[in-house]
Structure formats: C-alpha cells, structure tokens
Amino acid sequence: MKMMSEMWTTMGSTLASFMFLWTIMRQYCPYGVQRFLEKYTHRIMSYFSPYIRISFHEYMGDRLKRSEAYGAVEAYLSANTSKSAKRLKAEMGKDSSNLVLTMDEYERVTDEHEGVKVWWVCSKVMSPTRSSMSYYPEQERRFYKLTFHNKYREVITESYLEHVMREGKEIRLRNRQRKLYTNSPGYKWPSYKQTMWSHIVFEHPATFETMALEPEKKKEIIEDLVTFSKSKDFYARIGKAWKRGYLLHGPPGTGKSTMIAAMANLLAYDVYDLELTAVKDNTELRKLLIETTSKSIIVIEDIDCSLDLTGQRKKKTEKLLSDEETDKDVVVGRKEGKEEGGSGSRVTLSGLLNFIDGIWSACGGERLIVFTTNYVEKLDPALIRRGRMDKHIQLSYCTFDGFKVLANNYLKLQTHPLFDTIKRLIGEAKITPADVAENLMPKSPLDDPHKCLSNLIEALEKAAKTEELEQSCAIQHEELLQQNGSIKENGE
Ligand SMILES: Nc1ncnc2c1ncn2[C@@H]1O[C@H](COP(=O)(O)OP(=O)(O)OP(=O)(O)O)[C@@H](O)[C@H]1O
Ligand SMILES: [Mg+2]
C-alpha cells in the first residue's frame, strides 16, 4: 500500500516537473504547434496525474480588466516566497523608498499551509494579435499556476485560497503607491500598450488642512467623503453602485483642482485625470472607464470646455432659440481656446451620462467622479442633476477664514496687527485664494511677514476699487436700459 502511494507521489512530482519544463520550452514553439501539443499533453497528464492545477490569469474577460485575484496572488507570493525563489524581479515600492521583489517568469516556489505543500509557477503564453498585418509584437498573457495534491482539494480551495486572497489584498493596500493616470492620446490600444491609461506616481501635497475654506464647509466635505468611503454595506443594501459624483464649480483660482488632490490624499485614492477631448468616441470612453480601478477619483476638469456637450440638444431646439441664445450655446466650452482646433472626439452627452451612471459604471466600485467648471450655469442640467453629481460644491472668493489658513500656511502667522485691516478689506474685494496666496508668498529672502501682508493689503485695495467701479458701471447700465425702455413705451 505504502509502495503504491510512493509510486503515485513520484509519478505526480515527475509530471509536475515535466509540466514546468514544458512551460519553459513552449515559448520557442510556433503558436499552432503549441496549441496542438498542449491540448493532448494536458489530456494525458490529467488522466494520470493526482495533482490539481489552478490558474490565475492576469487579464480576464477579453482583456477588459486586470484580474484582482492575479494581483492578490502576486502580492502574496512577493511577500511570502521571495526568500525561497531564486530568480526575482525588483520594482520600486511605495514612496519610492523600498524595492519590492516578485517572482520572475517561469520561477517555481513552494508554499505550505496547514502542513500541505503547494507549488506556484509564474508563467506566460504568447497569444497572437488579431491582425496579421500588425507591426506590434504578440501579446503576453501572464498567469500564476497553483499545483497541489488531489487529496488536499478541500483544504486548498476552502482555506488556503481564501488566506492567499485576504493576505494578498492587505499587502497590496499596504504597498500601494498611489498613481495619477491620464489617457494619453497618440497611443493605440490594445495592440501597442497593454492599458489605455498612462500613469506616474501621485505626489500632490494638498490637504484639507491647508485649504482656504470656511471651517464648516470643510468639515461638511470631509465628513461626506469619509462617510462615502465607509459605506460599502450601505450602498449594497440600497442596491446602488458604490460611487459618488462631485461637481466643483467657481471662478478660476478658487481651489477646485487643489481640492481634488486633497480628496485623493484624504481617502488615499488614485486619480484618473480624464482628458475628454482625447477620447475618440463613446466606446473608447467606456473602455477607459472599465480600466479604472477601485479606490479612485475620476476627474474631468473644465467639463464645460472639454466638449460641446450641449451640441445634440442644441440641434434639436435650434429653431426655438433666438439668435442671441444660439450664440451663447456656441460659446459654451470655449475657454482659453482649449476647444479650438477640433479634437475630433465624438463623445456625446448621452455617452458621458452613461459613463457616469450606466451599467458599466458600477464595475470597480468605491469611486468618486469629479467634474470641475468655471461656468456651472452653462452645463446641461441632465449632466449635473443630483444622482449623477450628488454633491455640488461652490468654491468662491477668499473669506477672512480662508485668509487665516493661508497666512498660517505661508507665513506661520496666527495673528498680526494688520489682520484687522485685511478683515475689513477682504469683505469688500473679490479676490481669489490663488491671488491671496501669491501675495503672501515671500518674493525675496528679505520679505518678512509684515511686507507680505502689506502687499496683500495693497492688492485688496486695488481689487476693492475695481469692484466699486464695476458696480457703479453696472448701476449706470441698468439705469440706461430702464430709460431706453421707458422712451420706447412712451414712443408707442
Ligand atoms: N482654496 C484654496 N486653498 C488653498 N490654496 C488655494 C486655494 N485656491 C487656490 N489656491 C492656490 O492657488 C493655486 C491655483 O488653484 P487651483 O488650481 O486649485 O484653482 P482652480 O479653481 O482649479 O482654477 P481653474 O478654474 O483655473 O482650474 C493653487 O496652486 C493653490 O496654491
Ligand atoms: Mg483647476
């Protein structure tokens, strides 16, 4: 009996070794031969072998999305088996401060769980590109293969795999280096690059603490964000996808982009900065969405000038509009000539609405979608209605509270005799936090806090005068219009 079991064990491990060798050899065979040999060897081997194999492929579902299980296995093996592996790959880890070692291709390691031995192999196959005319190399399909004895099937499938997934996910979260993604134009997907997004390490220092904002507003936004990030069960219970839309609107330089960075830092999310004008059409927009990962913020800056999203509706209602109104619509989205030149994008309003709350938007989960604009009144109401853009945040001119935060940030001042003058002037002038910040910035090593505050007072006085002038012009204009109106009425 013992001899029999030894014979099976020997045969099993011989077959496992053969499989391992085969994995290495097959990269040198033509694809057709590979497929043929693979099919029959697998059939014969599985007939005799007492071993079970489970594969974890990097991409599932026609390469739409990187498999989370693969990522978890990779992280788990990197932490648990890098000591026993002989060939390793090194990558920069979190904060670029440490190296993370993972198994190199075709490397095999062993692991043990509850006294059961398992083998892991990191491998890849080449799959041909769809077009025979393609210049680009074949696509690599990477996978991890787990091998274990049949008699431990229950332990492995019920306990070991759960342990690997749980530990792998925790390690990934710990080692996660946050990223700033962009959909760069110019690259073709999927033949050249493996993903549609390019990324760099996200390292923006903005926090809510350093933001010039009224304390109550700040508190409300922070609470809203934190509540969202802890509401997985709540969203599941009410049957809603775990995502939330924020619309940040206000004049230039009031901190919209800064707030996005602060949000990302608060929740430790990645940022996907979506350049809509570089998206070819709705299909490409959907692909981009599917490739985003959980715990992320998808940002569309200056949504009003990304695309002429009112275009379709405009055509339908063109005849109903006066010339003046049509002109206004055409002007929508023209900011600093960003739209000029024609992006060639055919993303439509309905494509964008689908992006925000269509069925596909639910995959991934734990996501914020943030739009920023300087002209909220020019956006299509459908785009920003509650449910799509759940929270509207208006960022406005600097208040005294905002100034105090900036004075503390820039000059480390909590109080100063000039604060009273600033308090009086800041109520009269329209000045953005960006302008206040610029004035508080020392321009030479000799600039002390007093000098910086005096600069700010000067700027505030100038802004207050401009404001006064604009108001009196507006009053005169109003009076003239009223006079014209009464002349016309009398004439009739
Ligand atoms: N509320 C704020 N708190 C702290 N700093 C601010 C704030 N608003 C603006 N700033 C400063 O001004 C600079 C410009 O701000 P930011 O880019 O966030 O403005 P914005 O609202 O996104 O402008 P735009 O509409 O032109 O994109 C930032 O680098 C930041 O230093
Ligand atoms: Mg901005």
UniProtKB/TrEMBL annotation:
Keywords: ATP-binding, Hydrolase, Magnesium, Nucleotide-binding. The keyword RNA-binding does not apply. Its cofactor is Mg(2+). It comes from the Eukaryota. Pfam families: AAA (PF00004), AAA_assoc (PF14363), AAA_lid_At3g28540 (PF25568). It catalyses: ATP + H2O = ADP + phosphate + H(+). GO terms for biological process: response to stress. GO terms for molecular function: ATP binding; ATP hydrolysis activity. Residues 242-399 form the AAA+ ATPase domain. PANTHER family: BCS1 AAA-TYPE ATPASE. Belongs to the AAA ATPase family. BCS1 subfamily. This is Mitochondrial chaperone BCS1. The lineage of its organism: Eukaryota, Viridiplantae, Streptophyta, Embryophyta, Tracheophyta.
